[in-house]
Design brief:
148 residues; alpha+beta; 5-stranded antiparallel beta sheet
Length: 148
C-alpha cells in the first residue's frame, strides 16, 4: 500500500506520465535573433581609449564606417564605462575580432564578445550623452558654484 501511495504522489511522476516540455511544432517560432545583425562588444577599455585606438586594436577587421562604427556608452554622469560596441562588415570580421579576446590595450586586457545590434541600440537609448566623446562631452552636467 505504501509503495502504491509513493507512486501516486511521486513528485517526479512515472516515466509513462512525463510529457515533453517543448511546445508542439505549430507553436514554435523562428529564431528572433536571426534577423538581428551581430556586433562586437568590448569591455575593459581604459577610460581614455579613442576610436582610433580601437581601430588599431582590430587592425585585421573591417569596421563599418571606420572610427564612426564604434560606439562608446557613457554612464549616467556622462563618463565612459570602459565598454564599446563595434560594427563589423562581415561575419569573418566578427570571428577575427573574437580572436582578440584577452589581448591588451596598454596595460589592460580587453574582453571581446559577440553581441546584437538590438542590444547596442537599447544601450544607445539609455545613455545620457549618446556616446559622444570630445572636449564638450558632458559639459552641461558640469556643476560649479552657483555664483559662477
Amino acid at each position: 500500500m505504501s509503495s502504491e501511495r509513493e507512486r501516486k504522489y511521486d513528485p517526479r511522476g512515472s516515466p509513462e506520465n512525463k510529457r515533453s516540455r517543448s511546445p508542439p511544432a505549430s507553436y514554435r517560432q523562428a529564431d528572433p535573433m536571426k534577423d538581428d545583425p551581430s556586433v562586437v562588444k568590448i569591455r575593459g577599455l581604459p577610460y581614455q581609449t579613442t576610436a582610433m585606438e580601437v581601430c588599431r586594436f582590430f587592425k585585421d577587421c573591417e569596421i563599418v564606417g571606420g572610427p564612426n562604427g564604434i560606439y562608446f556608452p557613457l554612464n549616467e554622469r556622462g563618463l565612459p564605462t570602459g565598454e564599446a560596441f563595434v560594427e563589423m562588415e562581415t561575419a569573418k570580421d566578427i570571428d577575427k575580432a573574437l580572436e582578440r579576446h584577452k589581448d591588451c590595450i596598454g596595460e589592460r586586457y580587453i574582453e571581446v564578445f559577440e553581441s546584437r545590434m538590438s542590444v547596442m541600440e537599447r544601450v544607445k537609448k539609455t545613455c545620457t550623452e549618446g556616446g559622444v566623446r570630445g572636449k564638450d562631452a558632458g559639459r552641461e552636467r558640469d556643476r560649479g558654484f552657483r555664483g559662477e
